[in-house]
Amino acid sequence: MSSQGGASAPSRPRSRGGGAERAHRILLVRHAEAGERKLWRGDDRARPLTGAGLAQADLLAASFDAYPLSRILTSGYARCVETVAPLAARRGLAPESAAWLEEGADPTAALRALLAAGDVAASTHGDIVSGILVELAGAGVDIGPSPRMQKGSTWVMAAEAGRVSAARYLPPPG
Q1: Domains of the chain: residue spans and CATH
Q2: Helix crossing, 78-91 with 51-63: angle to 10°?
Q3: CA-CA distance, 62 to 58, in Å (whole number)?
Q4: 145/11: higher pLDDT
Q5: pTM here?
Q6: Residues 40, 15 contacting (CB under 8 angstroms)
Q7: How far apart (Å, rounded) are the C-alpha atoms in residues 10 and 100?
Q8: H or E segment at 20?
Q9: For the segment 15-48, what is each residue's pLDDT rounded down to a tens digit?
């Protein structure tokens, strides 16, 4: 991450076209461990987190204490909802389901929506994380030579004026 200040650095309003726009953070979370898709019988939307995934979700909630959040967004898939449930309980925020975070959705549209969401944590799938990372790299954001996106990991993005200025990878907790 570039020297944008720490996670707890205050946001500064910036004047832009007569209005003030505040810098914010986006926590882009790939859902925690959910077991093998090919071994799950039934609707994949209902595939839950494993025991290890539930532990990851609890650790994620605690690891986000330094970040201000006004919203928690999630794909409607059970594994994504369960990933942010401990965070929502810890913060007293209701998770909001967003179809644009679901598997197969358009990552460009997801990034646009996240940029408009303010200080947000968003639980989604590998294809959306990957697509957003491609968008960021294409826009000149340093995501490193081999960006990672393990289950239960997070990309912390600094955003301002409708664009991401920096991104930093946090490996899965635990």
Answers
A1: 19-170 (3.40.50.1240)
A2: 40
A3: 7
A4: 145
A5: 0.86
A6: no
A7: 29
A8: strand 19-22
A9: 334 444 679 999 999 999 998 777 868 888 889 9
